[in-house]
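Chain A, query sequence.
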Amino acid sequence: MDPRDSAPDSWELEEDAEAPAAAAASAAELPASFAALNVNAKPFVPNVNAAVFVPTSFQAGPAADTPAPDGGPDPVARMEVAETAAPVENGGTEADMTTEEETWEQKEEPGGGEDGGGQEDLGSGGACLEGTAGSEDEEMMEEEEEEMPMHKVAPPPPDAPKKEHVNVVFIGHVDAGKSTIGGQIMYLTGMVEKRTLEKYEREAKEKNRETWYLSWALDTNQEERDKGKTVEVGRAYFETEKKHFTILDAPGHKSFVPNMIGGASQADLAVLVISARKGEFETGFEKGGQTREHAMLAKTAGVKHLIVLVNKMDDPTVHWSLERYEECKEKLVPFLKKVGFNPKKDIHFMPCSGLTGSNLKDPVPECPWYTGLPFISHLDSLPNFTRSNDGPVRLPIVDKYKDMGTVILGKLESGCISKAQQLVMMPNRHTVEVLSLLSDDVETDDACPGENLKLRLKGIEEEEILPGFILCSPDNLCHSGRTFDAQIVIIEHKSIICPGYNAVLHIHTCIEEVQISALICLVDKKSGEKSKTRPRFVKQDQVCIARLRAAGVICLETFKDFPQMGRFTLRDEGKTIAIGKVLKLVPEKD
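Chain A, predicted structure.
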């Protein structure tokens, strides 16, 4: 049988993509070619059965001319082409068949010898794909490029019970391996396809950076990939049997700590990644390293549970050595205790290797001394978090952009939001309506506390929103103001702090400049007693109650009423100098 007479199935798509002019031209020379081709047209009939299973996600109909995806390069890109082509295929007249065969023959010439051999084997559906002419290949490549970051999460079946949402922030010193572990977890849980990773690996090899390819699953923009440093907080999702996790991949570099604070303020659980490699752990942990600062900021942001991943255990300087693991642990525990974590209940240590994926999903044979669960199983076995479903709606805004309306991103801290609900944007008191709700890129009708949401809003312009604004229920607005009293702990400051001192305040997702307008009293660390006289200054390691005044109006709550919106950090000159909690809001004097 002449190989060029077989498998027109994939070429129909090609024909549809071409301008109708081509079809007209082919119709003119139809009779001659038709006589030659029509004899062998019959072998295509059985192929209908092979392809019927492709359109299950659309409608199983005569749109069966697309090849089976098993041999195809990218099912997603394929299906998109199929979807656009389907209405034309459904015509299925005999004239269609003939033009189809005609174009098949014309196409064959430029395709050349490539397709010849493997064409008889129609069942595979893959051979005919290889022969596709350049234009479609390019088209597919473009589509593939656009699709890449998108196939992260599949929408769950409608009747599935809702899994608990947990936000996990990866923190730690620069180059400890946070993004690599995130990428490896996504690969192990099937959120990134093997093909995508192989593509990243090829690209990374070209740049002589072959160990970076896993982190590219989370570091998506070009600058981050070129320098190998995370800048913005990367987001991704993965699911285990019982829970749905959002990975927040925080930057480790000290220049980007403000971004990291924004990421930590959305998290329920922090994973502190430290490198076991000789010298790397020490630089991250000593003064000026980010291991200390990040752990402290995570605690201030309200993260209760900390998992310490001792990464790079497969390094030649470590070789899964228990001594090195214990050494890192001994240095860290006293510090984490000082920050406020309880070593027995809140902290869990585990060894792993992000690059090889050891001890992330499966236990490691080289590491017989570690008897606990691997990382993903450990996350799954954690107890559920308590959240207030019936509280007032509070959604601090992390980011906003325009996309067919105004879209905002944030984590719902309390209350429930549903479609078409009326809410109020504080502090500028705009009434808005929720047009659509996406929870981790999957559309839903309602959302519960702890979920990371994208909301499309009606009634407000994107320019009128700033990160740090809060969506509230109209019957229970959050407090806003400029002046408040707070208890602050000075963590690291070389000189003394007096009234009139300016710093940058980070509270939930809001960043605002503040001034310490008055020091009210000192608090004794051990007994909690307050001094009778007003201090003239405070210095490092002291606790005081001070009055702070922000440059603009900010949304906040007292720590007692709503802890997530009552904790804050003060930063100055790129260092975290103090942490604190809001005690009371001072009404503005007219």
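DSSP finds 17 helices and 21 strands in the chain. The first strand starts at residue 164 and ends at 171.
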